Amino acid sequence: MNTHLHESLDKLGKRLNAGRVPYAVSGVLLVLGTLLVYHSPRSILSFLVFAISVSMVYFLKMNKTVKLLLAVFIAVILVPILGARNIFYLEVIFQIAVFAALALGLNIVVGFSGILNLGYVAFYAVGAYLWGFFGSQQAFLLHAIPGTAPLDTPFLLAPEWFYIFIFLGIIAAAFVGLLLGLPVLRVRGDYLAIVTLGFGEVVRQLVNNLDKPINLTNGPQGITPIQRPPLPQGVVDVFNAIVEPIVGNKLTISEFYNILFYFIALVVVIAAILVTQRLDDSKIGRAWTAIREDELAATAMGIPANKMKLIAFAVGASFAGGMGVLFAASRTFVSPDSFNFMQSIGVLTMVILGGVGSIPGVIIGAAVVIMLNLQILQSFSLYLSQLRQSEAVIPIINFAWKNLSTQLDPAKYQRLLFGIILVLMMIYRPAGILPAARRKRELKNMDAAPEIDPPAEPATSDKEQNNG
Amino acid sequence: MADTGSFLQARGVIKRFGGLTAVNKMDFDIERGRIFSIIGPNGAGKTTFFNTISGIYRADEGSITFQGNRIDRMPPETITAHRIARTFQNIRLFGSMTVVENIMIGAYTRLKQTPLEILFRLKRFKDEEQHAEQHAQELMEYVGVHGLGNELASNLPYGAQRRVEIARALAAEPELLLLDEPTAGMNPHESEDAMHLFRRLRDDLGIAILLIEHDMRVVMQVSERITVMDYGEKIAEGEPKEIAANPRVIEAYLGRGAASGLSA
């Protein structure tokens, strides 16, 4: 049954990629998706059509320049304008970008180097609390009891510092990554997972309790308000002048911030993709894969395993640190609740679902999880509650929707659903939605593959390695 | 440091595992550009001694020097950088990577690219990668697996995997190559090819080779000097002919009394 499915998918793929078909398909889908979202911005279906059309641009075989131009057009013009019709979409896309960067960072540690890290969200907290502290009034409230801030407390830094703090967040998280890496390198396998899990909890408990003796984090209440980067009035006016006739209404300041954060997140995630790709395709990336495959053989090939693992930890952590700063500014609020264990598991889910070690895979993984969370489950919940209020009855079994228990709320079953999806994935597609593939190089002599005898039974394979 | 004249020199090397002394007071010398073999029954401590040279184990006592440097306290990656490369008894290729990538990993210590050059794709990085890729292909041709560059290592047949492992070790540009049972599982025709390859490595590239080998035909034909180990100790050393006639060796292989029976 599985092979049958694969065959028909293959056939479909071939048909879609023949000649000019991909241009037509992605063009038509894109126009359709745009019109649908424009016409009915609240419909989840129209957003899905749009999302699929965007992924078609990525997956179908087209001229590279065409693809790039289309991508720029979608990212810079289409999404902000459609987002202005329904600002919620920008929130969804922003979250996808944030979690895509987190998943990319975790993928370097888990996917490339094969080190299971269950406390990854701690690095995200480092970035968030860094800007949370320096971008708020907290520095002047060190001796105040949480929740008793006088109204006229000044801010420590000007909001422009936000942009510098993205870089500082990256550096700070990388440094913390190194700190965590040092003890973690002494343990392996299950023990390592436990240590990283513990580290994640330590960081969360720290921010939870560092409201005394000096109030650094404001404890469980969290820090607020945190400054957002400044929005020049000129840009707002120009954008409104362009968008108002298309969208039909002026955008509020908070909606503008949605657009601004969308763009910043986009830049950060593109940087993360480039860094990941380039490291992967270099001496460093090959060393990571070698360590994952067989650490002993890797060291025998001259790879300093501990150093490479530390680099993996630092680079992976840095993505989370940068996005943490962005998160703190976009919410204007940070609290320990945002950095619990389930968040780490959530990012890990994205990596596993999308494809461990696969760059496009983990991005798709992040998109799927976020869309399921924020959109599909929510709208399904909404639909059920509407049914409950209606007089509708299921025929044949004669079940009235209004008798449906209010406990049955899909949004509450989110984790159950992800559990089921993960189990099914592990059975039917263990390598993820888009499995990692090794890059094929353009090598000479490809036509001259020699005839090689079929594998002989290794005569000594059952002997132990170390007693020779 | 001490005695720079010798190439590889081991003195009084002891390696214990708990109460078991796997390698006991090994003295051992290899000269530049020659082929040496270590033979001995299973469990004699051959691979343990190998692992001690390549740094995977740390010797409990004794010293190992290579080209004048004490290597017995170095981690394996540093030893590789000092130009000792190895293969493994039970082939340890990186299965999910392609053959070319496997060989390029072998060249890890020879690549000088810095993170900055990698992230900004500077010319020096591109040149080095291209050169490494080309060199990997030359090595594939040299060991006889050309045209398989884009295959995943795990998909290769057994004999080809052995060759790729040798190519990977060669990419580190070694002066001493440690081969742990390189012809295990090969048919006579394949091991003939392998012997030919070993001689070419010695003659063309001037690489010294240390073999652990069970196939006596290979050992006797290819090695210039043989060391025999039993119960962790060196029991004999000499040229192939001497070893073949040595009663202690025959005893170790065939059991007590066999030597007198054979010579009678």
Q: What key phrases describe this protein's structure?
A:
heterodimer, A: 468 residues, mainly alpha, 2 domains, two-stranded antiparallel ribbon, 16 helices, 65% helix, 1% strand, globular, B: 264 residues, alpha/beta, Rossmann fold, 6-stranded mixed β-sheet, 4-stranded antiparallel β-sheet, 10 strands, 41% helix, 22% strand
Walk me through the structure.
- The complex is a heterodimer of chains A (468) and B (264).
- Chain A is mainly alpha-helical.
- Chain A folds into 2 domains: 10-85, no CATH class; 90-353, no CATH class.
- Chain A has helices spanning 2-16, 21-39, 44-59, 64-85, 87-112, 121-134, 161-184, 189-209, 233-247, 253-280, 283-293, 295-300, 305-331, 341-354, 359-389, 414-428; strands at residues 393-394, 399-400.
- The two termini of chain A are 47 Å apart.
- Residues 446-468 of chain A have low confidence and may be disordered.
- Chain B is of the alpha/beta class.
- Chain B folds into 2 domains: 1-83 and 174-264, Rossmann fold (3-Layer(aba) Sandwich); 92-173, P-loop containing nucleotide triphosphate hydrolases (Rossmann fold, 3-Layer(aba) Sandwich).
- Chain B has 11 helices and 10 strands.
- In chain B, the strands form 2 sheets. In chain B, strands 6-7-8-3-9-10 form a 6-stranded mixed sheet, sandwiched between helices. Chain B has a 4-stranded antiparallel sheet with strand order 2-1-4-5, covered by helices on one side.
- In chain B, strand 4 (61-66) and strand 5 (69-70) form a beta hairpin.
- In chain B, helix 5 crosses helix 6 (158-171).
- The longest helix of chain B has 21 residues, at 123-143.
- Chain B starts with 7 loop residues before the first strand and ends with a helix.
- The model of chain B has no long low-confidence stretch (mean pLDDT 91).
- At the A-B interface, helix 10, helix 11 and helix 12 of A face helix 1, helix 2, helix 3, helix 4 and helix 5 of B.
